[in-house]
Q: What sequence folds into this?
């Protein structure tokens, strides 16, 4: 039996039916945390299937916290919309805060549909149940979070706002590009703002009871968001200083922040060999079997991605997976869409899955001309995830702001010849 035939026997086909993920929900069981990854940030099917699973986790397993790889202030606006406490007219308007590259990551048609579903679910949910909320867990929004803290304090304690403004003025010598501060502080060209941001977080925490006593339960969520923004400023300040000490240092700090507030277990990939950790690893270390990690893969199709950081979104062709990769192995099964329970796969049962094999990760930048170097790494899939969902041919997620470049797409490699 070939490796592909072996995998085909393990595969559970996905037919687009409402019961597609019944077995996956059984695998999840009573887990407190479910991490849903993706092999790119621009694939329609990854967003869609992830949304389908998330809807069931909320509706059937009473999940109430949806944490996304996004900045806290931007996600907060969407949170208020799905909780029915904002003035935004629709999901597209609520997502308007996502203006930092890559905008299509959250401003796309699949996310709009999911946000509208979540808002309606919260409207109809039993009053005895807590509504579901959406929270950002990234730390790039240093200045946005500073603004959020100051706006909150201006409302509840103007004197505290003056003290916060003075502390945060440490960043005023730089533009709103925090990398400039990080470089200057690292090379000694500017004083570190570390003490100031820590003092501000401590003051908000110390005055929490006082703030809550003024408005009661109505103020609880506003205080929570303000404290999280103050914590984000503290962590972001440290992150931007660490950027110039080495990749592993800043990457690890960012992912620790995201856990305290890139999935798969880094120990099962080349990341671990380079001293880098990720959210999946940290969650497993902290919560063990109470966490379930789900990955996604594709063999070919199209993807929304940029050629360089900050560049315009393009609709690019995803090249067929390289030989020796998990994606090529899954393609060899002849199945269009399936998932595999990796917890049931022992190391000695099927070496094809245990690997190590190549695995592709596109992210928000796709460079097919250097694909092996830019987008592949070695991994042991059963140690990386608890389940893997494979969709053989995928298509680019549709941005809300479609451009002529995206609409045009990428010409096939055989153009102008039909071979």
A:
């Amino acid at each position: 039996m070939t490796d592909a035939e072996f995998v085909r026997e393990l595969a559970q086909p996905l037919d687009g039916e409402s019961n597609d993920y019944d077995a996956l929900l059984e695998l999840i069981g009573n887990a407190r945390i479910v991490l849903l990854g993706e092999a790119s940030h621009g694939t329609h099917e990854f967003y869609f299937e992830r949304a389908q699973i998330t809807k069931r986790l909320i509706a059937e397993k009473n999940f109430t916290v949806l944490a996304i790889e996004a900045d806290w202030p931007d996600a907060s606006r969407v949170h208020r919309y799905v909780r029915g406490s904002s003035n935004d007219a629709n999901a597209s308007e609520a997502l308007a805060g996502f203006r930092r590259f890559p905008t299509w990551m959250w401003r796309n048609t699949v996310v709009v549909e999911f946000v509208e579903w979540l808002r309606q679910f919260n409207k109809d949910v039993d009053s005895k149940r807590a509504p579901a909320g959406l929270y950002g867990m990234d730390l790039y929004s240093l200045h946005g979070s500073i603004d959020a803290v100051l706006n909150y304090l201006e409302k509840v304690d103007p004197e505290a706002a003056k003290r916060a403004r003075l502390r945060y003025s440490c960043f005023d010598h730089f533009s709103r590009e925090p990398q400039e501060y990080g470089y200057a502080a690292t090379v000694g060209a500017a004083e570190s703002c570390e003490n100031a941001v820590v003092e501000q977080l401590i003051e908000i925490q110390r005055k929490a009871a006082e703030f809550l006593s003024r408005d009661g339960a109505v103020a609880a969520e506003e205080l929570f968001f303000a404290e999280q923004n103050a914590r984000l400023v503290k962590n972001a300040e440290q992150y931007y200083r660490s950027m110039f000490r080495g990749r592993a240092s800043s990457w690890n700090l960012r992912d620790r922040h995201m856990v305290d507030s890139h999935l798969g277990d880094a120990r099962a990939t080349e990341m671990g060999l380079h001293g880098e950790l990720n959210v999946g690893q940290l969650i497993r270390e902290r919560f063990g079997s109470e966490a379930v990690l789900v990955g996604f893969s594709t063999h070919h199709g199209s993807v929304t991605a940029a050629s360089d950081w900050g560049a315009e979104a393009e609709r690019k062709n995803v090249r067929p997976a390289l030989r020796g990769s998990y994606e090529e192995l899954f393609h060899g099964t002849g199945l269009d869409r399936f998932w595999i329970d990796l917890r049931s796969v022992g190391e000695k049962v099927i070496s094809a899955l245990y690997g190590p094999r190549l695995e592709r990760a596109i992210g928000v930048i796709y460079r097919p001309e250097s694909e092996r170097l830019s987008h592949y790494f070695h991994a042991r899939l059963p140690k990386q995830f608890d389940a893997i969902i494979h969709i053989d041919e995928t298509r680019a997620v549709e941005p809300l702001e479609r451009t002529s470049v995206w609409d045009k797409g990428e010409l096939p490699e055989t153009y102008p010849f039909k071979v």
Observations:
- The radius of gyration is 23 Å.
- Residues 33 and 293 are 9 Å apart (CA to CA).
- Confidence is low (pLDDT under 50) at residues 247-255, 257-277, 414-419.
- The chain is about 45% helix and 15% strand.
